[in-house]
Amino acid sequence: MRSLSDGDLLFEESNDDDDKRSVNDQRFDYWYPNWETWKFRRTLSYWIAILYMEGSLLFTLGGAFSMTSLPEKSHADMQALVITPYFIGSICFTVGSYAGVLEVVNVPNKNDDIVDLWFKGPK
Q1: How many domains does the chain fold into?
Q2: Per-residue pLDDT tens for 97-120?
Q3: Is 50 a domain residue?
């Protein structure tokens, strides 16, 4: 880098940036070797977030209704307003946590001796 007379800076390009860029490209190719792998992992991350959010909203809804006097009127109201949101919320959390484990298990490792016994996404 050298300075001009009016205070502006002039940057000279070096080959170090090209070397750093090629190392970063190799890292990206390691984690996402093709479009299908990238799409699978991003889609799985999206659904994990959606399932956890849906589960937490349903738990909040069931908890809010359990503190009101509405479920005390009948067992059908109790089941519709409290039990069902808790049950469906727990299913959302269970599926989201399984998807999280699935995502972590499919992270590539550098040790080829390790055999993954889980579902493998597209590579």
Answers
A1: 1
A2: 999 999 888 777 666 665 555 555
A3: yes
The answer to whether 79 and 85 are in contact (CB under 8 A) is no
Nearest to 93 by CA among 118, 47, 56, 41: 56
1 near 9, Cβ under 8 Å?
yes
Residues linked to residue 2 through DSSP beta bridges, in sequence order? 10
Q: Is the pTM of this model over 0.90?
A: no
pLDDT score recorded for residue 11: 47
| CA distances from residue 74 to 64, 68, 82 in whole angstroms, order as listed | 17, 13, 12
Q: Is residue 120 part of a domain?
A: no
State the residue range of the domain holding 57.
34-108
- Is 89 in contact with 66 (CB distance < 8 Å)? no
